[in-house]
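S., here's the first fold you wanted:
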Amino acid sequence: MDNPAVDDELWAEFHRVVNMTSRELEDWLRTRDAGPETEPLPREAGPPTGNEVLAILRKRRSDVDHHDADVMRKIVDRVHAQRRDDLEPTAGETHWRHRLMSIGHDPLKPA
């Protein structure tokens, strides 16, 4: 059954650029927001876009809606704007890597 919100190309490209598993992303978002005295509730950790990516990763394709598809396009565009198309592992400045990791893309992870 095809989902009209997400075509094959978007589905495949989103899962290519989002190279972290849902568990890796969830752990990263929680670690990123943990402070010396406080830690946010697990569902509130990380930026809103990172949480939207996490929610999409946990869905079956048939459950993805038009809002999710918009988020997927935004993530694909953002990763491509900051990376080469081949997505080969690339070292960069720490803040750049962490910003990408917050949306599910680890630039040091092999493709």
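And the second, which I think is the more interesting of the pair:
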Amino acid sequence: MQQEELHQFHGKTRRDFMKQSSLLAGGLLAAPMLSQANFFSGADNVIKIALIGCGGRGTGAAVQALSTKENVQLVAMADAFADKLNASYNNIKDEVGDKPGRLNVKEENKFTGFDAYQKAIALADVVILATPPGFRPIHFEEAVKQGKHIFMEKPVATDPAGIKRVLEAAEVAKSKKLNVVVGLQRRYQTSYREMYKRFQDGIIGDVVSMQVWWNQGALWVRPRKPEYTEMEYQMRNWYYFNWLCGDHIVEQHIHNIDVGNWFMNDYPVTAMGMGGRSVRTGKEFGEIYDHHFVEYRYGNGVVMNSQCRHWKDADSKVDEEIVGRKGRMYMDKAVIKDHKGKVLYQFDKSKENQPYQAEHDELFAAIAKGEYKFWDAERAAKTTLTAIIGRLATYSGQTIAFDKALNSGLNLQPAKYAFDAAPPIVPDASGNYAYAKPGITRYFS
């Protein structure tokens, strides 16, 4: 993206961002209604979609986009790997077989390689960004530069430098009135929205503390093959390398952290915590930790305790609990109780929606109507940074400040994106990767 296009965020703080977010939420910066001509091309009013990143989440997002009520077509696909793209295409074809005409990807519009995203984006009105998150900033920049509406998966970066790029591109997206939805789907889930309405009405009073969890068992591992370069191996096994994934506190636990930020209508000032590799210790697990516990402190003194882990056969818990002066909100069960245990509100779970589908339904409905309604990128970037400072805190044992991290310039990305290039971290002679050690690993000092 041309530098002169970008609104410079250098020197801005968390409080500056919150002020602008409040203006947007209050409608003071709301965009005017736009005609359909501003939103998609073609006399037949088909909304053309490009899928960037053809893994499981990208495939699912494409199916959900094609399952909306609008006149949509998937016309282009891009991935670093041809086998991933072809498998995704076949899976999408199976899923949307009863919707003829929605899958319209010609062979010449299936692009592979590191520059594939640019070619696919050019053919679409709306792009789905679902690669490993380390690539999200450059893909988002390109989609904004080309004037496309965007659905992008969380998280939106893996390092503070990437967050800066997303925030800058988000400003350009606003100026162009481009709808941007980010896959933090709890904000599109009926039970969470109903709980938030009661929270705004004061049912539990002021927030006193919050607890958020993403504790689960083991995840997939893709074994190394002799023909892989180191770059290809890491990209295929992307979950275990920070430049690609950001660690599971960023890649998964961001969902729960986002709920805390949403209900606080703010972002933490600092993070401190602990973590390590106590169970998942083999070389196949790259450099990431298997557990994190972080204390996030907001400007008003409220603390959010955050824990996530990947431990086989240990108890699982994925949930959020908001504690107020008058009661508690148990988000997964969608129930609110006072401090004596009396139920103040219970959401009827039979009325729950499918939030992954709702994200696309709402996005494509707005586009079809020529409305500008969604500017998720800024808040998603700040919640991603919240997760990142948690990782930096557990890796180092330091207390990490939100604003200092944002302006640190810390960049995990490789100097060159190519299969024969060296990734930012390489194994030793035994095939093991160095990982962070609290008290030894240091940031910003």
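Why I say that: The domain at 47-186 is CATH 3.40.50.720 (Rossmann fold). The chain has two domains: 47-186, 193-350+376-407.

Talk tomorrow,
H.
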